[in-house]
Amino acid sequence: MTRALSDVKRRRIDELIAHTSDAGGVSLLRDAGRRLVRNPTAIVGAAIIVLFLIIAIFAPLVAPHDPVQRFPELTQNLTVDTIPGAQAGHPLGSDPLGRDFASRMIYGARQTLFVGVLATLIGLLAGVLLGAVAGAVGGWVDAVVMRLTDVMLALPSLLLAITLVALARESSQWTVIVAVAIVNVPIFARLLRGSMLAQRESDHVLAARALGVKQRHIVSRHMLPNSLTAVIVQATLTFAVAILDAAALSFLGLGDPDINRAEWGLMLGVDGVRYFEVRPELAYYPALAIILVALGFTLLGESIREALDPKNRR
Amino acid sequence: MLRVISRRLVQLAVTLLALTTLVFFWLRSLPGGPVDALLGERATPQTRELLTRALGYDQPIWVQYGKFLQNVVTGNFGNSIRTGEPVTEVIGRAFPATVELAVAAIIIAIGLGVPLGYLAARHRGRVLDNATIIVTLVGISIPIFFLGYLLKDWLTQGVHVFPPSGRISTGLDNTDVTGFFVLDGLLTRELDASADALWHLVLPAVTLATIPLAIIIRITRASVLDVLDEDYIRTADAKGLRSPTIRKRHVLRNALLPVVTIIGLQTGALLAGAVLTEKVYNWGGLGTLITDSISGSRDYPVLQALILLAAVVFIVVNLVVDLSYAVIDPRVRVR
Amino acid sequence: MPLLDVRDLSVVFQRKGTRPVRAVDGVSFTVEPGQTVGLVGESGCGKSVTSLAIMGLLPRRGNKVTGEVRFDETDLLKLRPQDLRDWRGRDIGMIFQDPLSSLNPVIPLGLQVAEVLERHQGRTRKAALKQARDLLDAVGIPDPDRRLDEFPHQLSGGMRQRALIAIALACKPRLLIADEPTTALDVTIQAQILTLLKELVDDSGTALVMITHDLGVVAGLCDTVNVLYAGKVVERAYRHQLFAEPRHPYTHGLLQSVPRLDVDRGERLHQIRGSVSDNIPWSEGCAFAPRCDRVIDDCIGETVPLEPTFRGGALRCTNPVPQEVPA
């Protein structure tokens, strides 16, 4: 060829290609992450959660008082139909026992986080274990696990939680946590199993099998990681439901019997409701806190799901 | 079709059997067993033994289990510990109240949820859509018993728009025919009773409808958006069909498929919401019954029957949903 | 006077937070009444987007369409969306690639055909269904009476595509756009569908725009062929011309990469090196240059224009494949 391409032009081509093509081969996850940080919904959700975490972790530093201490200046003004409101040193006033309500709200973040995280985590671990075994082994193990989840899912979730707590020997904070956790076990189990089954037939697992990869490795390296994204989304959403369920149990008199415990669901479901006509703030603040945190986790969970959805429409 | 029904009925039976078995053994695993549960811990040994024999708890466990199953099948759940009445009677009395409440709630949830979800999808990204999304998010994040108290506080205290609690005004002498007060009033031509009962129904029904409403809106919206992206909608557009025809004939019917499933699930979940709502409004239905049987000493016979009832309702509702699916979706019909 | 005159059609996709993508970049071509015109190119070259833009079927959000689409002297791009609905289905029919997803799964086939007739010819439901039956018969669907009440999932892939053809041709449009109509079908069915299309188009005098990546389809069907690359027409020629003497190195490469029975088995199939992601912007020269065997310095620098050839075609190349016989 007589009129070949000169080096200058060749470099120009390389330059143009580098400039035009988006960094090729961006992984799905990184792509999802990029969509996530660009999504204002996700940012709002994450901001709420971070704020909530900071308050929970640094509660002793943020709170003006000890959450269980009863203050004479508050108790002396307590009557059947008056609970002292805001005053010097007590920005949100008193609770029905003459304790500093603001401090209880702040420490409440800690307890609520504790209940929500543990209930979610226990449910997740048990569910994932069951689902993974059912999905990986198949056969009668799968059948048994699925019938078990059928039974658990035959009751609406809150009703199952109520039943579990009601059947427990005695109530404590742990009965609430465990009951809410158990309710979520079948959801996680089915989610994981469904995702594993779908993957068992998928091309990348078939390819791994064809290459002679061991079954154990296929499950742990190829199937589980892919299923876990769905589980993470579900866990984020579950957290919101868990603290709402815990509040409902408290409202029904099935909550933690410890009167010193400052937990939003407990504060709303017991005192908040009982003294609603005397001092509705006792309900408003914990309710608002619960709504905000539930909202935060829901927003984040949905944004993650959206970011992971290859269709990415909604 | 028949095969689907029979398979689901078998599944129902298996689930119920498993559930009863679990409840049976759980009750017997409690410290002191059901006798203590019935008598409390301070009963004398004589009373305890008498009751143990009377209830057949001295017999081997499988005999007890067989007897228990037999009782369940024949609808004999024993007597309530609290009131001493037969469990079936206690439940029968409370049942209509909850059904009335649940039906009202589901009518609100579907009647508002589907159109709102559809409108939000059509106006995607605009003010209406964003407002709907925010409201539904708050709707699923709010503890509904708190919402109940809020509504009660706003609309029954100062302004007296709605009655604060109960199913009917105390002075009203309504005839009880079916136990459904709104229906009774219509049947007996006591229209004032019907209106009064309806008036009492509004706030509890709205409270109970909140979560299913929010969920139905979200699912409808998402589903309509999905369908709008489908190839067959593009085909319909390519045919030059007018927008209303496309919406009614092509979009809506396909979009309703996932919504129907959600409606089934939510109808079952209403029973759980009813426990909270009924407590707020002192409604006196199954929810109140559940609350009463778990507070203080636990009324296990009632509780056990309620659990089984809830499971039956839940499974039957979802069976109905599956069947209605077949009506809407020809792909299911053939199988 | 051409039936369809596409002038300088451009489609730019713009999504929030991403760089705009120019999917169709100043495409012009014409279709005479009764003529069959091919739009050929690999996936992503803009051929499907072109067809959707002509029909006004691109989603309303996230894209910008410029240029002119003159159909019978009317610029379709200037019509209000509701007015364009009067043209679609009546004057221009369209069939799509995936016949299963393109038919509504919950509506009986009969109604899916009949509703076009109801809409554009004012037929009653009964008359429309009767005509639908005849249409299904005409596209070779056996037992059409029974099929009227059946649903898409009960039909085979080939039958579904026949049904889509029946829908598109129901109102005897003057133009039919077929977007990869055989790609989703079995090879044995593909030939049947193409034969059917050719028969129907020839009988009714309908003009056809055939969009495909398959040069075999073009060879059997098209009068004129437009080869698209990266959103632009790079070569236009009469069918025989194109197959006998491709001038653009891309067209040449495409033809070389078709397996042929009359070539020695030992010879390796030609392939075009690189991929679409190696393209450079048209504003900087020829987009195909990085993949081109015949690239020279003149290919880089400024946009290469589409210039008419002696034989009634057009070519966008600075260093075309030489002709064997000098013109």
Describe, in plain words, how this protein is organized in 3D.
The complex is a heterotrimer of chains A (314), B (335) and C (327). Chain A is an all-alpha fold and 314 residues long. Chain A is built from 13 helices and no strands. Chain A has one domain: MetI-like (MetI-like fold), CATH 1.10.3720.10. The N and C termini of chain B lie close together (7 Å). Chain B is built from 14 helices and no strands. Chain C has 327 residues and is of the alpha/beta class. Chain C contains eleven helices and twelve strands. The mean pLDDT of chain C is 89. The interface between A and B is large, with 43 and 46 residues.
Rg of chain A (C-alpha, Å): 26 Å
Element-level helix/strand string of chain C:
EEEHEEHEHHHHHEHEHEEHHEE
Average pLDDT level of chain A: 85
Strand fraction of chain C: 15-25%
Low-confidence stretches of chain C: none
Strand order of the largest sheet of chain C: 6-7-8-3-9-10-12-11
Helix content of chain A: over 70%
CATH class of chain A: Mainly Alpha
Keywords (chain C): ATP-binding, Cell membrane, Membrane, Nucleotide-binding, Transport
Protein name (chain C): ABC transporter ATP-binding protein
Organism (chain C): Paractinoplanes pyxinae
Subcellular location (chain C): Cell membrane
Features of the shown structure:
heterotrimer; A: 314 residues; mainly alpha; MetI-like fold; 0% strand; C: 327 residues; alpha/beta; eight-stranded mixed β-sheet; four-stranded antiparallel β-sheet; 11 helices; 21% strand
Could you outline the blueprint of secondary structure elements for this entry?
The complex is a heterotrimer of chains A (314), B (335) and C (327).
Chain A: H1 7-20, H2 28-38, H3 40-57, H4 59-62, H5 72-75, H6 101-137, H7 139-153, H8 157-167, H9 173-200, H10 203-210, H11 215-251, H12 264-274, H13 281-308
Chain B: H1 2-29, H2 33-39, H3 45-54, H4 61-73, H5 87-122, H6 127-141, H7 144-158, H8 181-187, H9 191-228, H10 231-238, H11 243-281, H12 286-294, H13 300-328, H14 330-334
Chain C: E1 4-13, E2 21-31, E3 36-40, H1 47-55, E4 63-71, E5 74-75, H2 81-87, E6 92-95, H3 99-102, H4 109-121, H5 125-138, H6 144-147, H7 157-169, E7 175-179, H8 187-204, E8 207-212, H9 215-221, E9 224-229, E10 232-238, H10 239-244, H11 249-256, E11 307-308, E12 314-315
Helix pairs in contact in C: 4-5, 4-7, 5-7, 7-8
